[in-house]
Amino acid sequence: MSETVERHEFGAEVGRLLDLVVHALYSDREIFLRELVANAADAMDRRRFEALTSAASALPADAKVRITPDKAARTLTVSDAGIGMSKDDLASNLGTIARSGTRAFSQTLADAKPQDGKEDEKPSLIGQFGVGFYSAFMVADRVTVTSRRAGTDEAWTWASEGQGSYTLEPATREEPGTTIVMHLKEDADEYLESYRLDHLVRKWADFITVPIAIVEDGKEESANQGTALWRKAKSEITPEQYEEFYRSVGMNFDKPWATLHWRAEGALEFSALLFVPGMKPFQAVEGERESKVRLHVRRMFITDDAKLLPSWLRFVQGVVDTEDLPLNVSREMLQTTPALAKIRRAVTGRVLSELTSRAKDAEGYQAFWENFGPVVKEGIYEDHERRAEIAPLLRFKSSAVEGWTGLADYVSRMKDGQEAIYYLVADDADALARSPQLEGFRARGLEVLLLSDHVDAFWPEQLARFEEKPLRSVTQGALDLSKFSGDAEAGEAPAGVDDLVAKIKAALSDDVSDVRATDRLVDSAVVLAAGGNGPDLQMQRLLRRAGRAAGGGKPILEINPRHPLIRALAEGPEDAIAPAAGTLLDLARIQDGDTPRDPVAFAQVVAAALAGKA
Question: Where is this region: C (predicted)?
């Protein structure tokens, strides 16, 4: 290094730095209680661990974290029976921003092994960054910390107003541990209410192993369960306990359709307890399109917005708890880390595997599909990576069989020479089975899947094929059904059909791209079809409703040359064709669930026709 190069330490305006720590790292004031409880839990875990080799560090029988509001004094106290801090510890840990005593202690445990196979003997510590304590200044304008290190008789008090300086003075404390007293700001009255404190503990720290109590008028009320059910072995949990936890985590009143409880071990370790509900929630899953599975780190709740499952599995509820996930300093915004991505993949794969297994039970799977089938279909549209795995889970109504059927079952029933999987999409499930679009298929014994969910217009094009069979909408393009024999009455087309088709096409040149005779109608006179390369009719309707160009061009009007109405037009006066053409198009639109081009004019035509018959 050149002798002219000077080395300098960074300078910092401590008061400003502390202000940034307090007001920039945390978006929600209530986080302060989680941070202080986490620190207290770490301190008690450290004392419990040290007690393994030092009797002087043994925890008292009633050791717990005590939270005491005092409305008269406007103080909130958080007290623990943890390892405590000496004078030097207070100066080092609280007097140096971003220095974490927990992190330093954790480093000494990096190679520690649990004794006798007891994993709980090794403490599970939460704190990492040494800034959580300062969140107290979000609600307090003065904080005092009185602490006594386990194994010593000396206590000290650290005090600060969060302006960049602090004081240290001798104090007294009967037992080892730490007491934090926050002198609350004028706008922090809510944290003097015991019910509010109880809610925050249950929200953020309900499952940490350290007991937490709210103290009011000298009485202690337990504020946390203290037992993380997902950390127990499945053999130790009763069905009733699973159901109770399911109801509490998701605010449900039914029984879960499926319970998934497992622990992943290896390079990445986590525990998971997930539930598939037995009924639709009161708030439809379509309203919120993000997964709300809760993420915990060492039992402490972090967020329910980690998107641990893709949106097409958002109905799944429960908890994922890990000790391997790096978090940023505020713990409110997760870092984009490979560890989190691996957890997401593993959890999604496990849920998908469970659904695949349960889908083999047709009767049991039906209840799930009727509740959440439309949401699962979104996975075909959104999840390219898992599209092939999701497809076998899909179930449909069919023109050929009762109940629900899957794509694999459809393929097994395909007729000789049938190359495509046929489907029809519409808004109305009941009207689908009566659609004229099905007449030619039904007459020839060709099965058509009937799709009526909101997402059905989107996903088939994304899936495209199943078991090498293309998916084909019956409304899309010219379908040649002539190679399939069936019950359709062929008969002879009336003379003049070609001329009739040409005249109808001329009359409807502004509304259709083509008019043609078809053999796929039996009882109906007309039907609409989409062009061969554009979206099918249902997608075109959705695009029009959204105010967007359909993209598939004008529809095609197909006519049944053997229908009495078409025969009458072919054999009747030429001047009747043009007015009838518009009515035929409106009839075809209505049959497909659309509206007439001009509802008033159509109503007048119908009224006139009825009057003529009266």
Answer: 542-614
CATH number of 497-613: 1.20.120.790
Structural element, H or E, at residue 421: strand 421-425
Task: Kindly provide the b/e burial profile for residues 173-183, where b requires at least 16 CB atoms within 10 angstroms of the residue's own CB.
Answer: beebbbbbbbb
- Token pair of 268 as six digits: 């990445």
Q: How far apart are CA 481 and CA 491, in angstroms?
A: 16
Token pair 């062929």 is found at 490
Handedness of CA 19, 20, 21, 24 (dihedral sign): positive
CATH class of domain segment(s) 229-364 = alpha beta
Q: Provide the token pair at 153.
A: 């008789």
CB 395 within 8 Å of CB 405: yes
Q: What is the DSSP letter of 232?
A: S
Residue pLDDT, tens place only, 178-216: 999 999 999 999 999 999 999 999 999 999 889 999 999
Domain boundaries, the chain: 14-222, 229-364, 497-613
Minimal CA–CA distance to 257: which of 213, 325, 316, 209?
316
H helix intervals, 207-293: 239-250
More confident residue, 278 or 328: 278
> Residue written as tokens 């409703």?
545
User: 259 vs 249, 272, 279, CA distance in Å?
Assistant: 13, 10, 14
